[in-house]
Amino acid sequence: MSQRLRQRGFTLLELLIAMTLLGLILVLLFGGLRLGVRSWDGAQRQVDNMNSVRSLENFLRREMSQASPYRWSSGTGQRLAFAGERNRLSFVAPMPSRVGGGGLYAVSVELDQTGKTRRMVWKYLPVSTQMQDFSALAQAPEMVLAAAELGDVEDIWLSYYGSESSNAAPQWFERWDNSAHLPLLIRVQVRLAKGGTWPDFVVAPMLSSEPAR
Fold this sequence. Notes:
This protein is α+β, with helices and mostly antiparallel strands. The protein contains two helices and nine strands; from the N terminus they run H-H-E-E-E-E-E-E-E-E-E.
């Protein structure tokens, strides 16, 4: 009887082997679970980033498309209120009533570098008859539309498509300071640090030749 009971039991070595195998199985299961969680988090971050980029693109497309051929009420020749540079765009556009009661606003979108981060900053102020340029925007409160680590984004820039004169063929420029008319198109481009590029998006501003009132 005692011999049969001893045969049904486990030796210490067998218990150690079983516990070792169980530990290895648990490690493998935990590693697989952690990998799955990381993959899920990575996919979710990509989805969130895509949604953020789409929201930013929709915002910029909506606002830039409202760029108006407004002219400063004072100053020589009533200059066109539009200044396009590689890293900054300033223009006048109507704002919806939910933003400061609506009306015409001087607006700027600037791409700047703060520390190790590139930021896209938005500023706006109501247009007044005393304004002769966009210098007042320097004191306006800023709203950060987007920020990206330099390790992810190598460069972001703006360019402008149009003709310098009625006889010249339209082309892309890094600056637009034409006092006669707005550019036909405004383009935002992004170059990623790893050599890739983000799809460009292009906006057509208001093309009326009449001064906005």
